[in-house]
Amino acid sequence: MRGIDVSAYQDKPNWMVVREAGIEMAIIRVANSKGEDVSFEHNYTGCEAAGILRGIYRYSYAKTIDAAVKEAMEVVRILNGRKLELGVWLDLEWKGQRNLGKKAITAIAKAWIQTIQAAGYECGVYCNMDWYENVLDTAALQVPYWIARYPKEDVGELKEHLKPDCGESGWQYSSKGHVNGIEGNVDLDVWYGSKDMSEKKREIDDEALGSLQEALNADGIRDKNGKLLQVDRKKGKLTDSAIQKVLMEAGAFDMQKGRYTVGSTGEVVKWLEMRLDTVIGNSIKALLGHTLTGGELPDGKYGNDVHLAVGLLQEIRGLKKDYIAGPKTITELLYK
Questions:
Q1: pLDDT tens column, 220-268
Q2: Is 197 a domain residue?
Q3: What range does the domain containing 56 cover?
């Protein structure tokens, strides 16, 4: 597919004219260090109206895992559940990150990507060939790549001999392109569509389901027939009927301490703590300064930290943010 990537630097393209020029896809900058890209809304809705497939990207300045999570969370908040046909792309090219070394930058990228994936989006990495070959641990990341590679004397023409040929999903072959409907230069891309980036495929975590069944049994929560659940790691009607009975929350807010007190307790709360750490642990650490369990056994107490972590999960996954772990939140945590 013929494509482009755009930001506020291209102002506000006439997307109908762009589509008539043969452009089929666009990767849109969603945000920069100052916040949401001022042209994002125009570009997102304009592409939709013109029938142009959309992905989004964010240039990263994160030098720590916590900073990576915060950047990714900003992307999640701006997207707010919007549809993307071509996923989210982490733009890695900043010299300040390169100086951190392969191990550190790969860990930062992992945290960024996992935060996006936790929100239900597919995520890939944009970089040039130097970063792909020498800076990133591509085997450890296991994501699609969008590669930038164009000639020193770039005049907006595709040079086939420069094609990366590394299994890339897309190739940015020029930064000096011209397309009807856009003032000035624009990046040009060829998109191969080797991976479906429309949404992250949701799968039940069988191990998590089995441990939930055990926790429900231990807390005396029975199925619709009043019987113990069979620990079969299958999400059938009987397990669903038991999940429907779950409603966990923190206690009252202590005005003096400025924290919520402990409310619900038990084995299902322990399961909740462990599962939250597994699914959004990096995001929880960025919020609280630590995970819920800190690598230790969970305490089974639904207090202030669990309250905040549940709200964070609900925000990331697009659920009603009520800080209560009911059937919808518990079911959401069953997905990888």
A1: 999 999 999 999 999 999 999 999 999 999 999 999 999 999 999 999 9
A2: no
A3: 2-191
